[in-house]
């Protein structure tokens, strides 16, 4: 396994990697490499979105169960019913969602629409799943906060179909938001910079190792 970092060009509506999509698919799926797209979203946008999501979580009630058809958030703290041990705060969005602050709703739609288009092009699967409603299968836009002091997500794997390719966007700044931990693939650990997107085949085992475990 190798980690490959490439640049992107950006327009108002899409993200264009410097590799063509067939080469990206070959690197990620056939060669089992990890590709990092550098500086995909502007850092001020990522910082603003992170703050708005955090504020929304503080101002709204969390839920202990899944609520299809509405945005909700909940804290997972070694839930015995979970297949994979984890400690994190999950923010799950139903988009569009008029109950959200307009600026937050707009930023979320912009972010996840661009990521969905990129994922479809890399995976060569133009599956037009909705980001809202009760009909399954559907997309569940999610932002995960791993709290300092021990937030983590144990090793896990996703089915290859129908997604094929997974995208992880980093909204945190190493050395500022956290000082230790990060996404790892057994022996491979990679901390990628704020606003970068990690692209991987969904059949790879990955985890999020303890984030700044010495802090509380």
Task: Give a structural overview.
The chain has three helices and 13 strands, in the order βββαβαββαβββββββ. With 216 residues, it is of the alpha+beta class. It has one domain. A hairpin with a 4-residue loop joins strand 2 and strand 3. It is globular. It starts with a strand and ends in a 5-residue tail after the last strand.
Primary descriptors:
7-stranded antiparallel sheet; globular; 216 residues; alpha+beta; 23% helix
Arithmetic mean of pLDDT: 82
The percentage of residues in β strands lies in: 25-35%
Distance between the termini: 34 Å
In terms of per-residue confidence, which ranges show pLDDT below 50 for 5 or more consecutive residues? none
DSSP helix fraction: 10-25%
- Assembly category: single chain
Secondary structure class reads alpha+beta
Compute the number of helices: 3
Report on the biggest sheet.
7 strands, antiparallel
Number of strands: 13
CA-atom Rg in angstroms: 17 Å
Domains (count)? 1
Principal-axis shape: globular
Secondary-structure element order, N to C: EEEHEHEEHEEEEEEE
């Amino acid at each position: 396994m190798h980690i490959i970092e490439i640049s992107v060009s950006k327009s108002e509506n899409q993200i264009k990697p410097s590799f063509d999509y067939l080469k990206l698919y070959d690197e990620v799926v056939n060669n089992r490499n990890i590709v990092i797209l550098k500086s995909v979203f502007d850092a001020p946008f990522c910082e603003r979105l992170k703050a708005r999501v955090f504020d929304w979580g503080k101002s709204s009630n969390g839920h202990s169960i899944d609520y299809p058809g509405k945005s909700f958030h909940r804290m997972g703290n070694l839930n015995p019913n979970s297949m994979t041990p984890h400690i994190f705060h999950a923010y799950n969005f139903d988009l569009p969602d008029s109950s959200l602050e307009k600026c937050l709703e707009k930023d979320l739609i912009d972010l996840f629409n661009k990521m969905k288009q990129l994922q479809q092009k890399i995976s060569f699967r133009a599956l037009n799943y909705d980001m809202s409603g009760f009909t399954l299968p559907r997309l569940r836009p999610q932002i995960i906060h791993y709290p300092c002091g021990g937030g983590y997500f144990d090793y896990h794997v996703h089915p290859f179909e129908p997604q094929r390719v997974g995208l992880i966007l980093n909204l945190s700044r190493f050395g500022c938001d956290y000082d230790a931990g990060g996404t790892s693939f057994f022996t491979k650990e990679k901390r990628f910079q704020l606003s970068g997107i990690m692209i991987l085949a969904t059949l790879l085992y990955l985890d999020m190792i303890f984030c700044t475990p010495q802090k509380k």
